Amino acid sequence: MLRDKYAENTRRALLDTGLRLFTERDFSAVSAEELVRTAGLTRGALYHHFNGKPGLFEAVFEEQERRATERISAAVSSLGDPIERADRAVHAVLDVCTDYTYRHIVLQQGPIALGWPRWRELDQRHLGGVLVGIVEAALAAGRIRPYPAGLIAGAFYGALTELALTIAESDNPEQARDQAASLVADLVGGLALGGGSPSE
Question: Which pLDDT does position 194 carry in this prediction?
Fold first, then answer.
C-alpha cells in the first residue's frame, strides 16, 4: 500500500511538472533532465512511469483532452433539445480552445510532439466520441437530416479541428473564437430539419 502511494505520488509529481514546463515552453525546449530535476526525481523514475519525455508529454496531453471532454459533456448534460445540445457543445469546444494551456499543449505542441497520426487518433478518441453521441441523439429525435452519424460527426470534427487550430494560431483568440462560433452555428442550422441557426 505504501509503495503504491509512493508510485502514485511520483507519477503525479512528474505530470504536474510536465504540465507546467510544457505549458511555459515548447516541447523541444524542455529536456528530460530539466523535468526530473524540477520534479526532484531521477531519470529512472521518468522512464519507469512514462518511458521518457515523449511518454510524459502524451500523458499530460491526454489529461488535457479528458478535462476538455468532461467540460464539454457538463455543458450539455442538462439540455434536452438535440439542436441546442449541438450548439452548446460547439461553444464549449471553442471555449476550451481559447484556454492557453489547452491551446499550447494540445493544439500547438501536440502535433509536433506526438506526430500528426497519433495526435489525430488521441483527439478523435476523446472529442470525437462526444460529437458522435450528440449527432446520434439528434438523428434519433429526427432533428437533423438523415446522413450517417459517423459522416456527420466526422464532418463537424474536421471543421472544429481546423477552427481550433486557427484559433490557436490567431493573434486574437477570443475574436477568432467568436467568429468560429457564428460560422458553426450556421453549419448546424443548415443541417437541422427546418433550417435556421440554433442561435436565432
Answer: 57
